[in-house]
Design brief:
The protein is α+β, with helices and mostly antiparallel strands and 85 residues long. The protein is built from two helices and five strands; from the N terminus they run E-E-H-H-E-E-E. It has a five-stranded mixed sheet, with no helix packed on it. The chain starts with a strand and ends in a 9-residue tail after the last strand.
């Protein structure tokens, strides 16, 4: 099963590493509150989602396929200052 790791402020939704089921990144993200991930219909622009260290925007986005040994890491990048600011 893929491993999901939430960093920073997202740890409140299940910090540390946890094994999750899902065939795509979208399936795995479905475990988290929608208002955090998709506040305006699309993926929150303050989030970075990595699969095995590679940003999903350079892969197949939310439809990136996951293998059983993949690692999905999600964190708030905060490059714009305070998230949402």
């Amino acid at each position: 099963m893929p491993v999901l790791k939430l960093l920073g402020g997202l740890r409140r939704f299940g910090g540390g590493q946890q094994q999750v089921s899902g065939k795509t990144v979208r399936d795995v993200l479905g475990r988290l509150p929608a208002q955090v991930l998709f506040p305006e219909g699309g993926l929150n622009r303050d989030l970075e989602v990595l699969v095995n260290g590679r940003n999903i925007s350079f892969l197949a986005g939310l439809e990136t396929a996951l293998a059983p040994d993949d690692r999905v890491t999600i964190f708030l990048h905060g490059a714009r200052g305070y998230p949402g600011g």
